[in-house]
Amino acid sequence: MPDAQDVLFRTLADPTRRSIFERLCRDGEQTVGALTAHAGVSQPAVSKHLGLLKTAGLVRDRQAGRQTHYSAEPRALAPLADWTKEMAGFWTGRFDALDDLLKRMDN
Amino acid sequence: MTEADTETRTVVVEREFAHPPEKIWRALTQPHLIADWLMQNDFVLAPGHRFNFSAEWGTLDCEVLEIEPNATLAYSWCGLGLESVVTWTLSPSAAGTRLRMEQTGFRADQKLAYHGARAGWPKFLDRLDHLLGRID
User: Does residue B132 sit in helix, strand or coil?
Assistant: First the structure.
């Protein structure tokens, strides 16, 4: 039974989709045309990827005249980017390394 | 900006070491020793000294904020999507020293979240692997 997080994982598993999302995070709001220029796939393919990213809550769109502008919703990644978990793992590893160093140091 | 974007959080890691505080203090404050267990650095034990930690995955901008020899050391720890302060506290204990690391900080804007997402990829890929084992 897929839950919201599974959808998130599956959506970002595709490298083309992930690079589109990363580009929006990095460079801010863009049109489908601008994204296509960098994506290396056709505009319909980019549109399809954007549709899936939108379904996953990772991007939002805004209509301006004939153009649709897309922007990233990086907060949708919160479950994957909880820095406290990352850092707790990092520091635990560093404590192990410190323990190892202390054993090798002169008193 | 939303509340969630600026929320401050704290990580605490504590451990008891069978070594005196003075020895642990050296490991926390001498650059070649810091490099052995933490990261490459140009640390100097002086209030207000700005320095960098660097590893193959990036560089952190830091500043020495508080020094109480053999007892407390605090420095800012900024970069890679995080604005934070790391505070080390050394307390003598029966076995030697209780060492406490407290890191308090936050992720702020979209750019930072992007870096966070990048940092999250390896974990994400592990989860993905696990997920793929469960679905058709």
Answer: helix
